[in-house]
Amino acid sequence: MTHDRIARLLAEAHTIAALKPWPRYEVDHGAFSEIGGAVGEGERELFGLWAEPGMVHMAIRAIGERPCVVSTAVVDDSFPSIGRWCAPAIRLERTIRDLYGYQPKQADDLRPWLDHGAWEIAAPLGARTACSLRDPADYDFLPVHGEGLHQIPVGPVHAGIIEPGHFRFTCNGEIVARLEERLGYVHKGIDALTTDVPLEQAARVVARLSGDSTVAASFAFARAVEAALAIKVPPRGAVVRGVMAELERLANHLGDIGAICNDAAFALIHAHCGILRERVLAAADAVFGHRLMMDIVVPGGAAENITADGAREIVAMLDAIAPTLDDIVRVYDETPSLQDRTCNTGYLAPELAKRFAAGGHVGRASGRDFDSRRDLAYPPYGDKTFDVPLLTAGDVDARVRVRIGEVFASMALLRAFLSPLPEGPILAPVPQPKEGGEGIAITEAFRGDMLVWLRIRPDLRVARCHVRDASWFQWPLLEAVIKNNIVADFPLCNKSFNCSYSGHDL
Amino acid sequence: MRTLLLRSLFASPVTIDGPAPADAALDEVGRALEARVRRLYGRSLTIREVDAGSCNGCELEIHALGNSVYDAERFGLRFVASPRHADVLLVTGPVTRNMRVALERSYAATPDPKWVVAVGDCGCGGGVFEDSYAVVGAVEKVIPVDLSIRGCPPRPIDLLKGLVALVDKAVAR
Fold this sequence. Notes:
heterodimer; A: alpha+beta; Beta Polymerase, domain 2; Cytochrome-c3 Hydrogenase, chain B; 3 domains; B: alpha/beta; Rossmann fold; two-stranded antiparallel ribbon; 7 strands; globular
């Protein structure tokens, strides 16, 4: 049975006890490569691939089980390529090569990814050798051959108020034959900025990985710290974090649902969704003192409490937006000219969603039934039941409908969290540990699972931290879904995904 | 849809009954801005937003300027798709090394007279990213900056207030 291959290899592997709460195994290059091959064949889902000095780690998960981490030592500055077996790993190992200088052996694609030749050093987290500037335009896009093809280069500066990235469309008339993305423009060196720094400083950097997912990132970071140092978050603290996470999800989905309709020139829904989003942010501001709720989820719990007035404010906001939301959904349902743009547009095949372990609405609109809130059941979600909308149509319409479903689910969850809030403290102290620790955690951001792995020293400095946004596994799929669509439908497809540039570029 | 349209038609505008923090200040700032912008530019000030490395937090709040609650367009503030059409570059940061060239080119493509507004703690000073190998830092390290609007991210109302200050500066020139 194929399923046993990885289990067999891991049974023989050396187990590293330091990582909490998932198992971590250390294997040699042969086994690492073999596991990569099995992941590529679908035995496991890839959840992450990252490095630290001298070591490469890969997070994988069998459906229905707890994830685990498989590590291999870097030998002669190289490690076995996973990307040669498993496409979702390609950009991650190009990143490892850019940041550490470690070569993925037998990898097909060795083009730089985040390194645009502007850093003046090579391998900033590795050897840090000085190097000269390269022309930023010097990048080998994959060749596209055929008659009558033309290219449309877009970005890095886009037409709207959007993050920067480059899209190279090769088209035949109006039809997109191929899209190739080039990202990395907003690379800020987050891995380096969270290496050997005090805990609070690392937390502030992680909170600014991607502004729209600041709660989710801080939440994952906090949980990884809590796992590493065995901190137990008080029940009220956990629920306060859940409230913030759902407010963030609500605000983002509302904004995006409007923006998708706006990209189909349907301004009415956009205008109403904008108002609803604003109401959510105003409530967040009133309760937590910050519209995006930045830096409020902290290791040990939450930095701001929800007062009785605050809880009433949130419920009042939910009551206020509910009727308009029903209207908006009805308008979406009853407008064929709008659905003409969203239905059958940007189709993501369920096989691809599965192969890339696509998180969030991207996966769930294409039949991948995974939501880390439910499937990894972390506090405060463990004892709550909530809807996880699942569709298989895989088009823009399906992604809109999954998001609409998630909006209603979040609203129900918020009401459940607040009635009533558990009593007690919101923050457990971070202890002075006897020894360091290693922690890993996943939280469900609005766009999908956010993974944080970190190692802490006894003096409470973060030795090394890695954050993997869901966008890593969604960006490549956007290239796939736009194929054979018209250029004018790209904004719709892009917004229905709404991948993060900053979260990906690190 | 008709029900929603009809109801919207007879409902009081959200722009006035908007969320708590902004109302009074927004109205005040808006009127001040409108008068000054008209004096200077006749009808409008066009803004090109450039994300030169931001975490997207500032973009979310700049986006909010366009919603029905803040509705910056009623004051003649309009976001445009090309720097060629812009009077103002609204730049968020920290400027990454990978975005430096793109920012310089956007600036070069903006016709004179032009103003640059650096937005957010990162755009104004590099923020938590300042010491990174991958970051140049504040916007002013790459192009001349006329005004800084701090905040992480600045609230939409602060962005509007900042633009008033910019117009003051422009008039004084």
